[in-house]
Design a protein that fits this description.
Layout lengths: L18 E3 H7 L3 H5 L2 H16 L2 E2 L8 E4 L4 E3 L6 E2 L7 H13 L16 H14 L6 H4 L8 H17 L8 H11 L5 H4 L5 H10 L11 H18 L17 H109 L36 E2 L2 E2 L4 E2 H14 E5 L4 E5 L8 H6 L6 E5 L2 E2 L3 H11 L4 E8 L2 E10 L48
Parallel strand pairs: 8-14
Antiparallel strand pairs: 1-3, 2-5, 3-4, 6-7, 9-10, 10-11, 11-12, 11-13, 13-14
Helix pairs in contact: 3-7, 3-11, 4-5, 4-8, 7-10, 10-11, 11-12
Length: about 550
C-alpha cells in the first residue's frame, strides 16, 4: 500500500509544497462536475492515510484544510500535531478529552485537569489540542467528540475521510452551525443529512461509500483506510464499465502517466451523465407516484376534514347546551341556597322569640307568685231533727310543692349568682376550638367524660357545640367569653346547643341568693269528742284561722 511517495510523516522534516488546500478547492468549485474532478486527489489522500496507519500512526484531526494539493498534482497531509503512534505513550489524550468536553459545554477554555500526567510538551499541548479539534469539529468522529479516547483508532480517521468525501459530493461540511459547540451538539445528536438529498446528481456509488464510512458505530465503518481505497477503486471500475469501455478508445499516446488524471475525469464525467439520466428518470417516476399518492391523501384528508368539522360543530352545540344547563342549575342552586338561608334565619328568629316568651312567662309567674288555688271546703252537713248530729268531715289538705333537696337545704329552680360566677369559668375551661370542613366550632370537651359540677349544673354535656348565647353568634372562645360576660348579671339567658344531630335552645335561670325557709306544718286543733258534732259558727261570725283550709302559702318560701 505504501509507495515511495507515501512515506509516513516525520516530525523533524517538513516538505515544501506550493498549492492550495482541498477545502479551498471545494469552495472554489462552481458545480458538482468540478468537485468530482477532485476525486483522484481524494483517493491519493486515502492512500497516504492508509500508509500512515500501516506504520502505526492515527492522525485524529483530518479535515479539508489539512490536505494540500500541490501545483504538480501532489497530495500532502499536513499537521500531524496530535497524532497517536502505536506502541508509544499518548501525551495528548487528556488534553483532547478536555478540549472535547469544553466544546460540548460551550466553553472557550478549560484548565488542565490536576490528574493529567505531565509531559515534555505540556505547556503548549492544551492550546494545540483545542485548536485542532475546533478546526476539525464538523469532520470529527462521534467517539472523539464524546471524549471516549479508548475508542479512538484508525476507524476514527476513516470517519473523517468519509466526511471529506461528503464535502466533495455536496459542497459543504456534514454539520454546519454557529461555532464548535453548535456543531458538536448536532454531531452527537444525529446523523448528517444524506448526501443524495443535498446533491441529487451526486454518484450513488460514491454516496454509498460516504454513508458507510460515516456510520456512527466504529464497527459499522470500513475496518481500515485500505478497505476504503479498495471500495473507491471498485466504484471507479464500475464507472468505467458503464461508460462502454471509453478508456479502450483512447490512443496509446494518451495512456501516459501525466494524462491518467484527465482520463479518470472524463470517465467520471461520462458516468455522471449516465447516472444523472437514470436519476432523472427515477425521480420522474417517483414524482408521478408521489403525485398520485398525494392526490389520494388529499381526498382522504378532505373527507376527514369534513367529518372533523361536523364533529366539532356537534360538539360546540352540545357544549353550548351544557353551558346553558349549568347556568340554569347555578341559578336554581343560588335561589335554593338563599331560600334555605332565609328559612334558617326565620327558624332561629322564631326560636329566639319562643325562648324570650318562655323567659317572660317564667319571670311573670315568679313575680306574681301564681300557685294552684286550694280546693273549696265542703259545707258541713246539718243533722235532721231527731237524729244525732255526726261530726263534720275535715277538708283534705292540698298537696304541698317541695323543691328538690340538695344536701340538707331546700333549693328553688335555677342557679344563684354566686353559683353562676363559679360555673362560668369552669365552662370556659372545658371548651375548645374544633376545626371542621366549613369553619371552626366551639365544643365542650372533657377528659374521659368527667364533667365538672358547675358545667353539669348549667346543663352541658361532653361533645355539646355552643353556637349562640341569646342572639349573639359564637364562633370562637373569645366570642363565648364576651357573650357570657354580658349576660352574667341578667336574671337568665338562653344558649343554642347542638348535641349530636339535634340543635335546641337551653334556658339557664339565675336567682338572687336567699336563705331557704322551712316552716313547721301546722298542728291540727283537737276535734270534738267522738260522737259529737262540731259546733257551727253563729250567723255573721267568720271562721277562725284554725278553721281555714291549709294552702301552699304555709309551706313555701315564695311570697
Amino acid at each position: 500500500m505504501c509507495s515511495a511517495s507515501d512515506e509516513a510523516p516525520d516530525a523533524s522534516v517538513t516538505k515544501l509544497v506550493r498549492g492550495k488546500t482541498l477545502g479551498e478547492a471545494i469552495a472554489q468549485a462552481e458545480s458538482v462536475q468540478e468537485r468530482l474532478a477532485l476525486l483522484p486527489s481524494f483517493v491519493a489522500l486515502c492512500r497516504s492515510v492508509a500508509c500512515a496507519h500501516e506504520k502505526g500512526m492515527v492522525h485524529r484531526s483530518l479535515h479539508p484544510g489539512k490536505v494540500l494539493l500541490g501545483e504538480f498534482g501532489e497530495t500532502v497531509v499536513l499537521d500531524w500535531a496530535i497524532a497517536k503512534t502505536r506502541g508509544h505513550e499518548d501525551p495528548y489524550a487528556a488534553d483532547i478529552e478536555q478540549a472535547a468536553e469544553a466544546m460540548r459545554l460551550g466553553e472557550e477554555r478549560r484548565p488542565a485537569r490536576e490528574d493529567a500526567r505531565p509531559t515534555a510538551s505540556r505547556e503548549d499541548a492544551r492550546p494545540t489540542a483545542s485548536r485542532e479539534l475546533e478546526q476539525a469539529a464538523a469532520y470529527m468522529a462521534p467517539e472523539m467528540a464524546l471524549g471516549q479516547m479508548e475508542k479512538v483508532d484508525a476507524r476514527s480517521d476513516v470517519y473523517a475521510l468519509g466526511a471529506i468525501l461528503y464535502g466533495i459530493l455536496t459542497g459543504r461540511a456534514p454539520y454546519v452551525g454557529e461555532g464548535a459547540h453548535d456543531v458538536i451538539a448536532k454531531l452527537i445528536a444525529d446523523k448528517p443529512e444524506p448526501a443524495l438529498e443535498v446533491e441529487p446528481v451526486a454518484p450513488e456509488a460514491m454516496a454509498a461509500i460516504c454513508e458507510r464510512a460515516m456510520r456512527r458505530e466504529p464497527t459499522a465503518r470500513y475496518a481500515s483506510c485500505k478497505q476504503l481505497v479498495e471500495e473507491l477503486e471498485k466504484a471507479a471500475a464500475m464507472a468505467s464499465a458503464a461508460a462502454g469501455g471509453m478508456s479502450a478508445a483512447v490512443p496509446n499516446r494518451m495512456q501516459k502517466p501525466l494524462l491518467g488524471g484527465a482520463v479518470a475525469v472524463i470517465v467520471i464525467v461520462l458516468c455522471l451523465g449516465v447516472s444523472l439520466f437514470l436519476r432523472v428518470v427515477q425521480q420522474r417516476d417517483e414524482a408521478l407516484l408521489a403525485g398520485a399518492a398525494a392526490q389520494r391523501e388529499r381526498a382522504a384528508a378532505e373527507t376527514e376534514r369534513e367529518q372533523v368539522a361536523r364533529t366539532l360543530e356537534e360538539t360546540e352545540k352540545a357544549l353550548r347546551q351544557a353551558q346553558e344547563d349549568i347556568d340554569h342549575t347555578r341559578v336554581t342552586l343560588s335561589q335554593t341556597q338563599k331560600a334555605l338561608e332565609a328559612a334558617e334565619d326565620a327558624r332561629e328568629e322564631a326560636e329566639d322569640q319562643l325562648a324570650d316568651a318562655r323567659e317572660a312567662r317564667e319571670e311573670t309567674e315568679k313575680a306574681l307568685g301564681l300557685t294552684e288555688p286550694p280546693a273549696p271546703a265542703p259545707e258541713p252537713a246539718v243533722a235532721e231533727a231527731g237524729s244525732e248530729a255526726s261530726p263534720p268531715e275535715r277538708p283534705p289538705k292540698p298537696e304541698q310543692t317541695i323543691p328538690a333537696q340538695v344536701g340538707t337545704n331546700l333549693r328553688p329552680p335555677g342557679l344563684t349568682r354566686a353559683e353562676l360566677a363559679k360555673a362560668l369559668p369552669e365552662l370556659l375551661a372545658t371548651v375548645k376550638i374544633v376545626p371542621t370542613e366549613d369553619k371552626a366550632i366551639v365544643m365542650v370537651s372533657v377528659a374521659q367524660g368527667d364533667v365538672p359540677e358547675g358545667v353539669r349544673r348549667l346543663g352541658f354535656k361532653d361533645g355539646d357545640v355552643i353556637t349562640r348565647v341569646n342572639r349573639d353568634p359564637v364562633d370562637s372562645i373569645d366570642q363565648l367569653t364576651e357573650a357570657l360576660h354580658r349576660v352574667k348579671d341578667d336574671s337568665g339567658f338562653t344558649v343554642r346547643v347542638t348535641r349530636g344531630d339535634q340543635s335546641t335552645w337551653m334556658r339557664i335561670n339565675v336567682r338572687e341568693a336567699r336563705p331557704p325557709v322551712v316552716k313547721e306544718p301546722p298542728q291540727e286543733a283537737p276535734g270534738p269528742p267522738e260522737g259529737e258534732a262540731a259546733p257551727l259558727p253563729e250567723a255573721g261570725q267568720e271562721a277562725g284561722p284554725e278553721d281555714a283550709p291549709e294552702t301552699e302559702e304555709a309551706v313555701t318560701s315564695q311570697p
